[in-house]
Amino acid sequence: MSKIIIGLTGPIASGKGTIKKYIEEKYGGKDCRFSTALRDIANRIGVETNRTNLQTVSEMIRKYFGQDILAKIIANDIKTLDSNIIVIDGVRRLADIEYLKDIPGFILVRIDAKPEIRFERMIKRNENKGDDKKTFEEFLADHTRSDSDSEVPVVMEHASKSINNDGDLQDLYKQIDELLK
After folding, report:
1. C-alpha angle 141/145/146, rounded to 5°?
2. 58-95 in b/e burial notation, b at 16+ Cβ within 10 A?
């Protein structure tokens, strides 16, 4: 059986991680995140893993090794994962989908939610140091601060499937189940 490879794209705190977790728990899916390699590099060089530093690491390795370098890392990781469902969390660049779209079984799914809802989620999860102290205006500014986050709306236009995450978890889970049918 061939793999189903679901690339998730969407703005900050739109629900990509929640979708990934649900697919892992209910369907036995495995995940790949662009930020995994970035966090590994940041940790290895002793740099704090906040959003700004991760964006800087991303920009530096892409500058020297190509805009699709992280997509190549993901593609290699996919080969080693022992699941028929793979979730790629955080597809943010056109160069990434240009590389990933040629992998058999790949589909790009856009996830979106209202900015106010996403802001509340970001504060609660506090994934990156300092997120819980941001203002709504700083949160909105994060969407344009780096090349990768500013490309997300364009990448979202290339998605063949869409999930709206303005509702509750049950509504989200229903949409994911429909997608996987």
Report:
1. 150
2. beebbeeeebbbbbebbbebbeeeebebbbbbbbbbeb
Tell me which residue of 88, 81, 84 sits closest to 109, measured CA to CA.
Answer: 88
How would you class 107 by CB atoms within 10 Å of its CB: exposed for 0-12, middle for 13-18, buried for 19 or more?
middle
Q: How far apart are CA 28 and CA 31, in angstroms?
A: 10
Tokens of 7: 């690339």
Q: What is the 3-state secondary structure (H, E, C) of 100-126?
A: HCCCCCEEEEEEECCHHHHHHHHHHHC
Domain that holds residue 84: 4-180
The DSSP bridge partners found for residue 32 are: 88
Q: Name the DSSP class of 145.
A: S
Residue 162 phi, psi (nearest 5)? -140, 140
Could you tell me the pTM of the whole model? 0.83
Specify the CATH number for the domain of residue 113. 3.40.50.300
The domain total for the chain is 1
Taking only the tens place, the pLDDT of each residue in 166-181 is: 999 999 999 999 999 8
